[in-house]
Specification:
By secondary structure, this protein is low in regular secondary structure. It has two domains: 1-91, Ribonuclease Inhibitor (Leucine-rich repeat, LRR (right-handed beta-alpha superhelix)), CATH 3.80.10.10; 115-203. 0% of the residues lie in helices and 12% in strands. It has an eight-stranded parallel beta sheet with strand order 1-2-3-4-5-6-7-8, with no helix packed on it. The radius of gyration is 18 Å and the shape is globular. The protein starts with 12 loop residues before the first strand and ends in a 21-residue tail after the last strand.
């Protein structure tokens, strides 16, 4: 059995994947940890102490079939660059981001049970890669997605209940100026594609 409370000084990488681990909490002096892999475990909810990993850059949570929520204060991970929660089929919400967070570059919620994204997603101002394919219950996207001015990759393929893409509320000519890869393949409920004309990424 893996200990509930761990204390590993100076460790930069921890990988505990595809096992029956049900709980992970942060011990003292783990401020050097940069990479944490908890893929395929049995964790239902992450301990709030996870936000004490002040140096964490990469957080892998994929294929956690029991995971239902992410920590509310995940925005306190000021050095986090990559958050992967793909295949977390019971994860129904992404926490609010009440402040600007410029460190996060990659967010993958592929195959999760996400129903909607909060308007505060626009505070992820450094985000470059947003991966949302096969989110079968995702119905809408917030207008604040246009605040992701560094976004280069957006995959919504297979989001069969997505009914609309937000129009740009300000009529800005550079809605998603850095977008290079965009997929809505398999979005069978999406009937209006006029929003494509507002993206203006085609000029670059």
């Amino acid at each position: 059995m893996f200990p509930r409370k761990i204390n590993l000084k100076s460790v930069e990488t921890i990988s505990i994947s595809y096992c029956k681990l049900e709980e992970f909490s942060v011990g003292e002096d783990m401020g050097f940890l940069r990479f944490l892999n908890l893929r395929g475990t049995c964790i239902k909810e992450l301990h709030p102490s996870i936000t004490e990993l002040i140096s964490l850059e990469t957080f892998c949570l994929g294929d956690n079939q029991n995971l239902t929520k992410l920590p509310y204060h995940i925005y306190e991970l000021h050095n986090l660059k990559s958050l992967g929660a793909m295949g977390c089929s019971k994860l129904a919400a992404f926490p609010k981001i009440p402040i600007k967070m410029d460190s996060l570059r990659l967010l993958s919620l592929k195959g999760s049970d996400i129903r909607e994204l909060d308007e505060s997603i626009g505070n992820l101002i450094g985000l470059e890669y947003l991966d949302l394919p096969e989110c079968k219950n995702l119905t809408t996207l917030p207008c604040s997605i246009y605040g992701l001015q560094n976004l280069g990759f957006l995959d919504l393929g297979g989001c069969s209940k997505l009914v609309r893409f937000p129009t740009n509320p300000d009529g800005c000519s550079l809605s998603l100026p850095k977008l290079q890869t965009f997929s809505i393949a398999g979005c069978s409920s999406l009937s209006d594609c006029d929003f494509l004309m507002t993206l203006d990424c085609w000029k670059h």
